[in-house]
Write a structure and sequence with these properties.
Blueprint (H helix, E strand, L loop, with lengths): L5 E10 L2 E10 L2 E7 L11 E8 L4 H11 L9 E5 L1 H4 L4 E6 L5 H8 L11 H10 L12 E2 H14 L1 H6 L3 E6 L5 E7 L2 H14 L4 E2 L5 E2 L4 E4 L5 H10 L3 E4 L5 H10 L2 E7 L2 E4 L6 E2 L3
Parallel strand pairs: 3-6, 7-16, 12-13, 13-14
Antiparallel strand pairs: 1-2, 3-4, 5-6, 8-9, 8-12, 10-11, 14-15
Helix pairs in contact: 1-7, 7-8, 8-9
Length: about 290
């Protein structure tokens, strides 16, 4: 479940032309500075700024781990030697991390920098090809199977677990479920990409990311459920993590569908009780089950 701080903001509530002054719980949005430590610990060491992202405070180490993994800067839990959240760094809104000495993070960062935003100007074909250059294997398109009734129940299950959204109405959520519809992990954030990074980072730090001999990946979960739309960046994060089913209450983009088709992800949009749109790899969903 999510551990989220809120700010009570003085607000004028207007209903049917009548106003009332009441504090409104608002989700906190603050910058997080991500900094790289030297490969080997030393006295008086200084970190190097890598990125700044806007996020909801909480689960910051998971956010950074998921971000690094999703962007291809690390490939396994073992690549990440140390992660210091704000409590450990002693600096508010700062996370510092260290990778193993033989990891060429600079070269990896250059190779992945074009995927930082959906408005990067790179054509869809080029972007997708570059993702697969980083070794994202195609998934088996027929397994695991998910029964329709299980799938249609996921949005409500996720909503019941969204404690932050229930208070503020201003947070995105990402949740991992197994094929039986059991919740594995849920995270909330003002940024939809951050919520996904926190979910993947939580599994990575917990040692739940498994690799097979063919380079395949698994987070020991089946469905990544999104409270919003399914864009390209989130779909490529799911592909890299080996998540077979990506389901969203909103719409996918054309590039996300191309990414899902190429990687073998079952992408579902407009999911709610009684209906959904099934765009790619349909064999995983037991519609008559």
């Amino acid at each position: 479940m999510s551990d989220v701080d809120f700010e009570a903001w003085p607000t004028t509530h207007v209903i049917d032309g009548r106003s009332q002054e009441l504090p409104d719980p608002v989700a906190i949005e603050e910058p997080l500075e991500i900094r790289l430590l030297p490969p080997i610990a030393m006295h008086g060491e200084e970190s190097i700024a890598l990125a700044v992202t806007m996020r909801t405070p909480g689960h910051d180490a998971e956010l950074v781990a998921g971000f690094l993994y999703g962007e291809g800067l690390i490939d396994a839990r073992e690549d990440l030697v140390e992660v210091r959240d704000p409590a450990a760094t002693g600096v508010e809104n700062r996370v510092e991390f260290r990778v193993r000495p033989d990891l060429d993070l600079a070269a990896r960062r250059i190779a992945r920098s074009f995927l930082a935003t959906s408005a990067c100007g790179i054509c869809g074909k080029t972007a997708i090809e570059q993702v697969f250059v980083r070794g994202v294997p195609a998934l088996d398109r027929e397994s695991p199977r998910v029964v329709r009734s299980v799938l249609e129940a996921l949005p409500e299950q996720m909503r019941r677990a969204q404690r932050g959204f229930a208070k503020t109405g201003g947070l995105h959520a990402a949740a991992l479920f197994d094929s039986a519809g059991e919740l594995v992990v849920l995270r909330e954030d003002v940024g939809r990409h951050n919520a996904v990074d926190k979910v993947i980072g939580a599994r990575l730090l917990a040692g739940a990311l498994q690799l097979d001999g063919a380079g395949g990946r698994s987070l020991c979960a089946t469905v990544l459920m999104l409270s919003g739309r399914a864009g390209f960046e989130i779909t490529q994060k799911a592909a890299r993590a080996g998540i077979p089913v990506l389901a969203a209450v909103g719409a996918p983009s054309s590039l996300s569908l191309r990414m899902a088709e190429r990687s073998g992800i079952t992408l579902i949009g407009f999911l709610r009780a009684g209906r959904f749109n099934l765009y790619t790899a349909p064999a995983r969903i037991a519609i008559d089950g």
